[in-house]
Design brief:
Its main location: periplasm. The protein is α+β, with helices and mostly antiparallel strands and 452 residues long. The chain has helices spanning 2-10, 18-25, 51-69, 75-98, 105-118, 123-132, 137-157, 166-174, 201-219, 224-231, 253-259, 311-326, 331-338, 342-345, 361-369, 399-429, 440-451, and strands at residues 40-44, 47-50, 184-194, 242-247, 271-273, 276-287, 293-303, 350-354, 379-381, 384-396, 433-435.
């Protein structure tokens, strides 16, 4: 269970239940005679971040980093990135609300059931385990709703802007740093010195000089994770800049041609992008092995119910065709004459070589159980009623056949990271944010002394 909660913290699912947990543990003061209960730390457009929320989030992040690194960082070093994260969460939720994005209870419950299932629990067991660990389930549930809301917002505001050309796919497949069959994975750390939108030449010079100075510190032996925590303005600050393991093709386009030439422990040159100046450290490199997949070649006949053909009649018609095949009729001829699948009927029902996961589960389950040469009994799928015949099976390295589809997805993901960074920066620059406390940490400690 600790691993479950740890992964959720890493995905920023620790925020919404923070205030409830703090109240339960007595870390947020309760109202009393003349006592200051709380303060507004930041005004974020139409919302506010309270000092108690900031302090509780800081406490939880400190625990997370201490569990990961073995030591607690200075709270002063965490204040800016934690506050930035809270601000960006509020701004994105407000934008989603303006666009009418809302996660209904059915979708939310399905997501919670999936989380529980991934951790080998029922939803009830998962809820009980969270409560046993001191987590308010209702607040946790609403935080999942917020994460789903932000994800939908990203799809609407960012994903729809991304276009991938055929030339880009060709270039990726052919490139040294992007070939997706290189069987290499990289673990990277990332540091960003951001630029405001429409930065003037002086701002650009200052940001580049700052990035070069940080790089010099790293080359002189400074801990890169601490430099990230102190200086970076990227989305992975609280993870020490860790981007995790990525294949060569999953490395962001901006970094890929640098990373492929780096050795473990190397720091990249300062890399310029529209969002600012970047440094990348290659912490580890490892190889991958190819995976052979089991392909099936099959053909089928589909009979689809309609306004003039009931499901019972469709099934009976297919049963007659099955009996004719059993008596020696040619499967291909019957498919051409009777199948309602226009794509395969002209080929005698032939579906070609089928990879795992290509067909709907109802069809694939029957296909996998059918021996080569056999014809299945009639069965139902979302498309109607089928009989199928498996003609061949083979173990095949299909990477070449599916390479273009993979390349397209990977290019979209690379572009998405760059586009998301730019969009988040624009959202921040166009919003009203007012800091109400000059020193929220000092104010928080002073409040604690008064309440004691």
């Amino acid at each position: 269970m600790k691993q479950i909660i740890k992964s959720m913290l890493a995905c920023a699912l620790l925020g919404a239940y923070a205030l409830n947990a703090a109240q339960a543990q007595g870390t947020v003061p309760q109202a009393g005679d003349g006592e200051l209960l709380d303060r507004v730390a930041v005004v974020v457009d139409e919302d506010v971040i309270m000092q108690s929320e900031l302090l509780e989030r800081l406490r939880l992040i400190e625990q997370q980093i201490a569990a990961r690194d073995g030591q607690r960082p200075p709270r002063e070093a965490l204040l800016r990135p934690v506050l930035d994260r809270l601000i960006m969460e509020r701004l994105q939720l407000q934008e989603a609300s303006r666009l009418g994005i809302r996660i209904d209870d059915i979708s939310l419950n399905n997501a919670l059931e999936n989380i529980a299932r991934e951790n080998r629990m029922s939803l009830g067991q998962f809820r009980d385990r969270l409560v046993a660990d001191g987590i308010d389930f209702r607040a946790f549930r609403e935080q999942i709703r917020d994460e789903m809301t932000i994800s939908q917002l990203h799809r609407r505001r960012v994903d729809t802007r991304i276009q991938v050309s055929e030339q880009e796919i060709d270039d990726l497949i052919a490139s040294e740093s992007g070939a997706i069959d290189r069987n290499l994975e990289y673990r990277l750390q990332h540091l960003l010195i951001s630029l405001p939108e429409g930065a003037n030449p002086e701002q650009i010079r200052e940001a580049r000089a700052r990035a070069e100075a940080i790089r010099s510190e790293a080359l002189d032996g400074a801990d890169f994770s601490q430099l990230v925590l102190r200086e970076s303005e990227g989305q992975t600050v609280l993870d020490g800049g860790d981007l995790g393991w990525r294949s060569a093709a999953q490395v962001p386009t901006l970094f890929s041609r640098h990373v492929v030439l780096m050795r473990e422990g190397d720091i990249s040159e300062v890399i310029r992008s529209p969002s600012g100046f970047h440094l990348v450290k290659l912490t580890e490199r490892r190889g991958n092995e190819q995976v052979q997949i089991e392909q099936t070649r099959a053909r089928h006949i589909l009979i689809t119910p309609s306004e003039i053909l009931t499901p019972e009649e469709a099934r009976e018609r297919l049963r007659n065709l099955y009996n004719r095949i059993a008596d020696g009729a040619d499967f291909a001829e019957l498919a051409r004459a009777h199948s309602d699948d226009p794509g395969s009927a002209t080929r005698g029902g032939d579906l070609g070589w089928v990879d795992p996961g290509m067909m709907v589960p109802a069809f694939e389950d029957v296909m996998n159980r059918t021996a080569v040469g056999d014809v299945s009994e009639p069965f139902a799928s979302p498309f109607g009623f089928h009989i199928l015949q498996v003609t061949e099976r083979r173990s095949h390295d299909s990477s070449r056949e599916i390479m273009r589809a993979q390349a397209r997805d990977l290019i979209r993901e690379r572009k998405r990271e760059d586009e998301l960074e730019i969009w988040l920066r624009r959202l921040r620059d166009e919003s009203f944010v007012e800091y109400r406390l000059d020193d929220p940490l000092a104010a928080g400690m002073e409040r604690g002394r008064r309440l004691r």
